[in-house]
C-alpha cells in the first residue's frame, strides 16, 4: 500500500492535466490540493501503528477509510500545526484517494482509471490497487 502514494500523485496529476482538478482549489478542511499533496498538517489523526493506534484502526477495523477520517473527533486527536506545516499522514494520503474518486461519475470509472491511464500505458500488468470495503483505493502505509 505504501508504494501507492507515488502512483496516487501521478493519477491526481493526470486529473489536474485533464482539467478535473486544480492545484489551488480547496479540497480538504479548506486546504488547497497543492498543500494536501505536500502533506499539510491538517488532520488530528495520529500516525500510530500500535495495536490500538489510529492507522491500524483506519485500515483494518473501519469499513470506510473516508468515513473514519471525516468523523474523527478533533478533540480526541493530536494538535495539528496547520496547512503551512508538514506531517506524514496515512490518513491524508487516503483522503487524497477520496478526492481522486470524486472526479469520476461512477465507482467503476474510478477503479478503471489507474489501469487504463497508467498501468497499461507503462506495461505494469501485475499492479493491483486494493480498496477498502467502500471501494476507495487504499493509498497509505502498511
Report on this model:
This protein is mainly alpha-helical and 142 residues long. It is 44% helix and 8% strand. It contains six helices and four strands. The protein has helices at 4-17, 33-37, 54-61, 65-71, 90-101, 107-122; strands at 26-28, 31-32, 40-41, 82-86. The strands form two sheets. It has a two-stranded antiparallel ribbon. Helix 1 runs parallel beside helix 5. The longest helix is centred in the last third of the chain and has 16 residues, at 107-122. It is globular and about 45 Å long. It starts with a helix and ends in a 20-residue tail after the last helix. The model has no long low-confidence stretch (mean pLDDT 92).
Question: What structural class should be given to the helix and strand makeup?
Answer: mainly alpha
Q: Which regions are unreliable across 5 or more consecutive residues at pLDDT < 50? A: none
Q: Tell me about the largest β-sheet.
A: 2 strands, antiparallel
The total of beta strands comes to 4
State the order of secondary-structure elements, H for helix, E for strand: HEEHEHHEHH
The percentage of residues in β strands lies in 5-15%
Rg from alpha-carbon coordinates: 15 Å
Mean pLDDT: 92
Order of strands, main sheet, comes to 1-2
Query: What is the end-to-end distance?
Result: 6 Å
Shape: globular
Estimated helix fraction:
40-55%
- In DSSP terms (H or I, runs of 4 or more residues), the helix count works out at 6
Amino acid at each position: 500500500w505504501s508504494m501507492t502514494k507515488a502512483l496516487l500523485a501521478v493519477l491526481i496529476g493526470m486529473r489536474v492535466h485533464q482539467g478535473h482538478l486544480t492545484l489551488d482549489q480547496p479540497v480538504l478542511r479548506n486546504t488547497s490540493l497543492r498543500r494536501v499533496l505536500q502533506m499539510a498538517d491538517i488532520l488530528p489523526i495520529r500516525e500510530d501503528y500500535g495495536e490500538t493506534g489510529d492507522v491500524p484502526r483506519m485500515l483494518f477495523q473501519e469499513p470506510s477509510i473516508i468515513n473514519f477520517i471525516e468523523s474523527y473527533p478533533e478533540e480526541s486527536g493530536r494538535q495539528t500545526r496547520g496547512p503551512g506545516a508538514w506531517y506524514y499522514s496515512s490518513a491524508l494520503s487516503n483522503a487524497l484517494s477520496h478526492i481522486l474518486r470524486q472526479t469520476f461519475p461512477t465507482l467503476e470509472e474510478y477503479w478503471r482509471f489507474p489501469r487504463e491511464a497508467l498501468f497499461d500505458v507503462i506495461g505494469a500488468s501485475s499492479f493491483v490497487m486494493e480498496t477498502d470495503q467502500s471501494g476507495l483505493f487504499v493509498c497509505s502505509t502498511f
